[in-house]
Amino acid sequence: MTRALFSVLALVLITGSTPRPAVETLLAQSIADARSSCRAGDRGQPLVVERVASRPTAASVRDYFDEWIAFYQDFYQFPPDIPVTFDYGFDSYRITYCTVDAMLPGASTTRPVSATGMLSVPRKRGALSTVAYLHGTSVSFYDAVSNPNIFGRFNENGESFDGPPSNAVFAGAGFIYVGPDYLGLGESPVPRHRYFHAATESSSAVDLLAASRKVLASLRVPQNDKLFTFGFSQGGHSALALHRELQRAGADVTGTATVGGVFDIEQFFLASLDNVTTITVPLYVSYVLLAYDDVYDVFDRTSDVFRAPFASTVEGLFDMRHFFDDVLAGLPPDSQQLLRPSFLAAIHANPQHPLPVRLRQNAVDRWAPYAPLRIYHSPDDEEVPYQKALESVDRLRARGADISVRALPGFDHVNSWVQAMPRAARWFRSLE
């Protein structure tokens, strides 16, 4: 982990009073200039800090969570007995900071780049534990955890899905919340998110944690030495990638929890090719293919992989400016209708095909974590197969991991996430 001299270049405070002292502005420059000022060696530098929301009381946090539930209730049919409580209000800060991009084809080094993420600070006295929250799949730049709004105000195009409930659950429970948007989302200049790319999932989180420490010091918020990671869906992959990177760097992780997590991306991809019942699967398959081609150059032309007419339209769907539902509407209902038979045959017949080789390199279930892991997963998860998660648990356990599984039967992918977050918050408390 880079240990550099951090300086806050700019601060914008949204209207309203703050219970903490403002971060000192050390350099007068425009926000746009700050966001383009990352250079080699600047990893973890905070550039812009904006206070984007305040939920001053536990009751206001409850209202925030309930508003999100009501917004999605008709679609997800959340049960009335979600086991969540809220003890503290909190203030949310959107941080723009420096990190690095992937090692792209033809490049000899990683490129410095800015990224954004959320820092939420509970209105709680004393030294606070930290939860690094790693979010699930997003195809829209504004659908990022640094967007605090359920709908409307932050961006005219749409709302944040993961951000509001995860902020409410973890910051409302008294944890400092640190959530990276990842590259290609939020205000990152990367043109497309590096989907399921372990190195940038972890580096964007490591560098936000470094930037957050400087901001918290400026806000005079004391941290203790307890750091937890939590990941949902794609974020399960990111959480284990982050935990592994922190451990390699000698940083202590107290515990990691995931829900509906993907740990073996190759097996998830292959299972998704055969899944003809879950309508979201063609989106994930397309996203993996395009992102891995961006990073690894795994095919020559989209027409080598995708059937017509999707070969000519799929890249435009993943320009980070489409709604999730609009991307789905532009794809067929299953991968068999999406992909060329010759490509499907090559993937199944040749484990040394460039794509599965790269997918295998991004597995996060082949190492030995020192800190305990807790895996929440529903046997009824329609997107991420339960059995595949158990196979990853076995791989980690065989390497010495202290890992436990908590099944959440009867819940789909999204409902298991909502159920798991408050359970994980209580488990984290038990480890403090």
Structure explained in plain terms:
- With about 425 residues, the chain is an alpha/beta fold.
- It is built from 14 helices and ten strands.
- The protein folds into two domains: about 10-265 and about 370-430, Rossmann fold; about 275-360, 434 Repressor (Amino-terminal Domain) (Orthogonal Bundle).
- It has helices at about 30-35, 60-75, 165-170, 200-220, 235-250, 265-275, 280-295, 315, 325-330, 335-340, 340-350, 355-360, 385-400, 415-430; strands spanning about 10-15, 45-55, 90-100, 110-120, 130-135, 175-180, 225-230, 255-260, 375, 405.
- Strands 1-2-3-4-6-5-7-8-9-10 form a ten-stranded mixed sheet, sandwiched between helices.
- The longest helix has 21 residues, at about 200-220.
- The two termini are about 25 Å apart.
- Residues about 1-10 and about 10-30 have low confidence and may be disordered.
Name the descriptors.
alpha/beta, 37% helix, 17% strand, ten-stranded mixed β-sheet, 14 helices, 10 strands, Rossmann fold, 434 Repressor (Amino-terminal Domain), 432 residues
